[in-house]
Write a structure and sequence with these properties.
Layout lengths: L1 E8 L2 E8 L1 H16 L14 H7 L2 H24 L8 E6 L6 E8 L3 E3 L7 E4 L6 H14 L2 E4 L10 E10 L2 E2 L5 E7 L9 H4 L8 E7 L13 E15 L5 H7 L5 H35 L1 E3 L2 H21 L4 H8 L3 H29 L5 H15 L3 H10 L3 H20 L1 E4 L1
Parallel strand pairs: 6-14
Antiparallel strand pairs: 1-2, 2-4, 3-4, 5-13, 7-12, 8-9, 8-10, 8-12, 11-12
Helix pairs in contact: 1-3, 4-7, 6-7, 7-10, 7-13, 8-10, 10-13, 11-12
Length: 431
Amino acid sequence: MQVTLEQVEPCIVAVTVEVDAEAVQQTIDRVFKEVAGKVAVPGFRKGKAPRSILERFVDQDAVRERAISQLVPEHFAQALREKGVEPFAPPEVSIESFEVGQPLRFTATVPTRPEVRLCDYRDLPVRRRRVEISDADVDLELDLLRRRHTELVDADAEVAGSGLVAIVDLDLYRGERHLKKRSQTDVALDMDQTDMVPAFNVAIEGARIGETREMPVHFPDDFQDPVLAGKDVTFKITVKALKTKQVPELNDEFAQKVSDVADLAALRDQIRQQLEESAREVAEREVRDQLVEQVVSRSEVHFPEVLVQEQTAEMLRRQASELERQNLTIDDFLRSREIDFPTYERELREDARRRIRTQLVLEQIAEQEKIEVTDEEIDQEIERMASSAGVSSSAIRAAFEKQNSLAGLRTSIFFRKVVDLLVQSARIVEE
């Protein structure tokens, strides 16, 4: 047997094997006997006819394929051992020549282990955003808080118009058929909302309480609901009540109502602290993201394309599963994004490549730094999650075990520890 090895590209080698003619003939003869023993030849017991006669009744292609199926795996494994090659994924095998009385020659394209050459990942420069919360930031958050506590009260009005919120029932009809499952009751329509689709508020402008108006609507062919897609329907809109928005005053009473504080001043302090904490978290995430990006971009990483294919397929599977839970299809999703499937698949492949590069680099750092995750660290993380959620740690652990996701939790902690190391050794400059 002769073996040649060629590095086709990083993480891809071509192993060419030539099996000598004698070994090939021995395998063909053995296979022929196995096949011929099951062939009935008129005038002879099975397997007893002369070979010259048997050859007329035996499927020579079947003999050939069976011989190849025995020769290739055996000699390929031997060739890998001889050259010290460790396949990372199944190879692609191409038969180059196979004739009776001649050597068998085949080439296997073999994906090999990823290769990572790390940059100097210590003492990396990175900028951290300075946390500064102004009075205006606090005022804006307080205003948003007030609006979230807006109440609807009965309006002193007789007809639907600007400045009001109409409480309506939306009854949907296709012809004379009432689509009860797609009808809605007690829907709040803001009469000042300008981007409502369909524009129900425009349809009921000037309507009185108890009045019903009809609004024809044509749904586009690509509408996500197949019952309505491409259909002409009619909405019957019944005005049940007219309301006005009542935004609470910003005072001590409001502060006590929305939080466990004594007065408005204390609420302002509380909000400032929350904004500062949130800003610090954002700033720290940015630092971590910058460090990971630097390390990955500066390191040399090679990996076989099969990893990208597998990761892309997994991402597609997860997306389809999530859409199914929402009673949607991948076509619905693509229409909502206004892209076709090849474009979406290209996006996923690029995302897969980024994820793989990042994972390989961080794993290499972990190996170099001997970073591991202990069972004790798993327990601590579960305790932290339980405390944050206000439930028992046993409940959190049971949830992870039910979903078979403890390994995922370990992985999350693992990568966090690697990035922690990068942060600890970085040169961080406050902006």
